[in-house]
Amino acid sequence: PNPASERIHIRTGEGMEVASIFLMDPGGRVLQIQEGNIRKGMDISHISDGLYFLSITFGGGEQVVRKIAKQ
To answer: Which residues contact 66 (CB under 8 A, 6 or more apart)?
Structure first.
């Protein structure tokens, strides 16, 4: 997993646009949703250290899930 402490930034390929990011705990409970202005990243400073999942949806409807570690 990619470690982060305060903010998560999503890098995409050329021409790909992030439509939404869902931050979820290991049980699948949604903790935070960010839509729209994704370029600034997602603030995670308020959550406890541990493992989490990001569900990232792109403008074309493609969805990927990535594991992150909050430190």
So the answer is: 2, 53, 54, 56
